[in-house]
């Protein structure tokens, strides 16, 4: 199971102050368990791992199999919580070079509907021209412009290219039970569809079909992912004593650091496969906590790559940051540094060592340097990169986010601020129903 080490924050905040959060954390946990806190209609994720039935998992796997048998490429159309969880898991577990190989054991997963880039869509539709492709259309509201726009284009292309009957087989919708355009289209076209429960918000939905279906299509074991999340549900439960509960300690420590003036949390990894786990985490914490003019700003870096860019800022820039490092104990493969008689590069001191040993020393050296430079450092250890450990990590972050949001005093389950840009965009595009806003915005230009 995940372990959290906060020792290297204790030169900046005291253990006593962190442990003083115990009653507040208890209160937050009770509010989550009893549904008495803010946003309590969105708590379906809290005991989701233990309530997922095998029948549901089999349904997802059977649907994934249809896509795997009929598609070379599957497009996951979604934005925010409707794609980041799937991408985080798929990229963490995939071979970094599979996408370049000709023979693949699973369809390639490509993402769309998470931007409005015309060139992106042009290049995507061209890439798909000679491909047998399918689409998983994911939108809880069913009305998100980015996703709906991409889906309109992809649906037409899929029908034109593969015929209406095959398109019906290889397009799957994951959306609300009854509301929204995605539901209307799915029902009218007869697509296989899955429901996103009302009480699970987008960024907490990775363990619903939103995440599980794309992950299963990519060939990963969703039983093990859910098993990992179940382990974390136990280890981070409200009945686990504060001192032994990594989610409680993480939530308390980051809030105490925030109070002490550390306004930015940088999630660090030393494994490039975790890049999208960080993207998912940024969304989870940014959208959950950044409101009412408060909230830790969630940032992320991939080390050692970014030590040669952001490393300078982290070491010597404004002292308003702290780091949370995801440390992966064991790699899945072994590469030894070869010995070289000529030793022209002077690297023989590393000969015979594992590359991961070098990486681990980079990690340790960086931790010590950053702490010396005034950056508190938490270390979150996972055993390896596997379905089980990623499942643990995702649930750990979710429950810690719920607790942390309540400690901060905000509703971690809404996102009112996301509407502001949409209102302006619709007004500028003269969307029906936005006539007043259109007039008002035009006068500002
Ligand atoms: O966490 C959230 O609720 C958001 O990030 C949503 O997932 C995102 O805005 C996409 O919404 P929808 O699934 O309704 O298209």
From TrEMBL:
Q: What would be one Gene Ontology cellular-component term for the protein?
A: cytosol
Q: Which domain of life is it from?
A: Bacteria
- Location in the cell: Cytoplasm
GO molecular function term, any single one: monosaccharide binding
Active-site residues, record numbering mapped to chain: 287 (proton donor), 422
Q: What is its EC number?
A: 5.3.1.9
**Which keywords label this protein?**
Cytoplasm, Gluconeogenesis, Glycolysis, Isomerase
TM regions (residue ranges): none
Reaction(s) this enzyme catalyzes, per UniProt: alpha-D-glucose 6-phosphate = beta-D-fructose 6-phosphate
- Biological process terms in GO annotation: gluconeogenesis; glucose 6-phosphate metabolic process; glycolytic process
Please give the CDD domains that the UniProt record associates with this protein.
SIS_PGI_1 (cd05015), SIS_PGI_2 (cd05016)
Please state the pathway this protein functions in, per its UniProt record. Answer: Carbohydrate biosynthesis; gluconeogenesis; Carbohydrate degradation; glycolysis; D-glyceraldehyde 3-phosphate and glycerone phosphate from D-glucose: step 2/4
Role of this protein: Catalyzes the reversible isomerization of glucose-6-phosphate to fructose-6-phosphate.
Spell out the family assignment given in the record's similarity comment. Answer: Belongs to the GPI family.
Q: Which HAMAP family match?
A: G6P_isomerase
Q: What is this protein called?
A: Glucose-6-phosphate isomerase
According to its UniProt entry, this protein's organism is: Bacteroides graminisolvens DSM 19988 = JCM 15093
């Amino acid at each position: 199971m995940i372990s959290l080490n906060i020792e290297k924050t204790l030169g900046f905040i005291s253990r006593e102050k962190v442990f003083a959060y115990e009653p507040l954390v208890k209160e937050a946990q009770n509010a989550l368990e009893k549904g008495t806190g803010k946003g309590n209609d969105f708590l379906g994720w809290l005991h989701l791992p233990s309530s997922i039935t095998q029948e549901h998992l089999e349904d997802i796997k059977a649907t994934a199999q249809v896509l795997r048998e009929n598609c070379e490429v599957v497009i996951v159309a979604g934005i925010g919580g409707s794609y980041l969880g799937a991408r985080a898991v798929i990229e963490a577990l995939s071979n970094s070079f599979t996408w370049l190989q000709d023979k693949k054991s699973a369809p390639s997963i490509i993402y769309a509907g998470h931007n409005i880039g015309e060139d992106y869509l042009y290049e995507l539709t061209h890439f798909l021209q000679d491909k047998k492709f399918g689409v998983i259309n994911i939108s809880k509201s069913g009305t998100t412009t980015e996703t709906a726009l991409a889906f309109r284009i992809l649906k037409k292309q899929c029908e034109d290219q593969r015929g209406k009957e095959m398109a019906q087989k290889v397009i799957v919708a994951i959306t609300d039970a009854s509301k929204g355009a995605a539901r209307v289209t799915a029902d009218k076209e007869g697509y296989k569809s899955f429901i996103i429960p009302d009480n699970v918000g987008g960024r907490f939905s990775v363990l619903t079909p939103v995440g599980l279906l794309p992950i299963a299509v990519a060939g990963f074991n969703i039983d093990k992912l859910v098993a990992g999340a179940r382990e974390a549900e136990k280890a981070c439960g409200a009945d686990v004593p504060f001192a032994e509960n990594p989610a409680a300690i993480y939530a308390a420590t980051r809030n105490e650091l925030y109070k002490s003036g550390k306004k930015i949390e940088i999630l660090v990894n030393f494994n490039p496969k975790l890049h999208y786990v960080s993207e998912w985490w940024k969304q989870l914490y940014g959208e959950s906590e950044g409101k009412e003019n408060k909230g830790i700003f969630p940032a992320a870096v991939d080390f050692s790559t970014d030590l040669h860019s952001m490393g300078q800022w982290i070491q010597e820039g404004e002292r308003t940051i702290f780091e949370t490092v995801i440390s992966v104990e064991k790699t899945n493969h072994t590469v030894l540094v070869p010995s070289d008689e000529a030793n022209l590069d002077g690297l023989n001191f590393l000969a015979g060592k594992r590359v991961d040993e070098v990486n681990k020393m980079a990690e340790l050296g960086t931790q010590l340097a950053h702490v010396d430079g005034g950056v508190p450092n938490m270390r979150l250890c996972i055993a390896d990169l596997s379905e089980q450990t990623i499942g643990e990590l995702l649930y750990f972050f979710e429950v810690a986010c719920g607790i942390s949001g309540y400690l901060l005093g905000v509703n971690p389950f809404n996102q009112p601020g996301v509407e502001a840009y949409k209102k302006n965009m619709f007004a500028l595009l003269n969307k029906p129903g936005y006539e007043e806003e259109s007039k008002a915005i035009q006068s500002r230009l």
